[in-house]
Amino acid sequence: MAERSLQKEEIRIIEALLFSSPEPLTQSKVDVCFDSDSAPSLEEVILQLQREYDRRHNAIQIERVAGGYRLVTRPEYDPWIERLHSRTGKTSLSRAALEAVAIIAYRGPVTRTEIENIRGVNSGSVLKTLLEKNLVTIKGRGGGPGRPLLYAVTGGFLVSFGLNKLSDLPKLREMSELTQEPSPTNRFVHNRSGKNAPE
Amino acid sequence: MSYQVRLDNFEGPLDLLLFFIRRDELDIMDIPIARITREYLDYLEALQSLNIVLAGEFIVMAAMLMRIKARMLLPQFSPESEEEFEDPRTELVHRLLEYQRYREAARNLSEMLTNHNQVFPRPETGELDHVEDPAFYLEEVSIFELARIFKGLLDKMPISLPYEVDREQIYVKQKMAFVMAKFAEKSRYPFSEITPFLASKQELITTFLAILELMRSGQIRVLQKGVFDDFVLERVEA
Lengths: 199, 238
Known about the structure:
heterodimer, A: alpha+beta, three-stranded antiparallel β-sheet, two-stranded antiparallel ribbon, disordered C terminus, B: mainly alpha, 3 strands, elongated, disordered N terminus
């Protein structure tokens, strides 16, 4: 496909498509809207649009998430939006759920037993929560005795955490690193160990 | 020694052990097992004295710690090579480190979540939902999802009440009459001719009982050609 400059109209069309889809917009979805070869490069359009929004100090920006793009508000306006909508749409997870989803995200697909072996506690209810929130799904069965269910993270997980793809997760620290440096929480513990430590 | 710690902060025995290691600045690669076992057990005791029911995993870990401690107290018997001797703490240390990795990862994820919760996408609206293409939704549901939903529906179904025994007796009499009535057409007929009329397991069993009763009272006899063949009912002439 020959390089060509983006037409103003194309940019507006993509903008309209972006607005119309709460689901992230992908190049393949864009291709469907245009005649065979004439679809513009979504990535290029996004670059242009984002530049425009930045110039105008728009309250809306474009986010790259789950392999596509979508319109989102800038974080500065979060307190205002909260006043209007209270806590709608905000995902909140317990520490247990976060631990479990971390294991599934980094090691998935995994079985429930593997999760419980790492956490050292029963993880049944936590898995149920994650399934219900559509952050994880069952991706088949493992081989071996009992053919246990395998859990993996979903596209919804990527969206909730603002990730474009799973490999964008911050790297797990190697075990060797953990044993060498003092963990940052050491300082935290010291601060709270005084008699007048806040409750 | 009082613990100024919030009890709900520990996600499990590994979490608790890591707390002791951090607080006392112990070297995780060389855990003083007697000391940490003592602290751990003291803590469990404190919880139990507060009438807090502990998850089984905490008890299991207590047993594990004591076992490690015991093994370390035993004289190290290494006949030939030093390599044979395995530090009984190794597995525990490995588990602690592994858990620590993911606990940290969980903290990172928590931060990511908090940050990302500050941006809002366009909320889903009814009119613009992609309902045109039903396949859009079909993709998301896996067979396991369907099974889960089905089980949920099954669980919600009312439990069918067992039939009362005396009702059963009426049925048997009815079925006996039913079986006998068919003899008006012919003096013998195969059982397979009645089976289409039997709508449920209950009916089948009752009919069987009826046949047995009729056999016992000598009103019919039952014939069969082969072992697993259909059997034939024949009225006994008075």
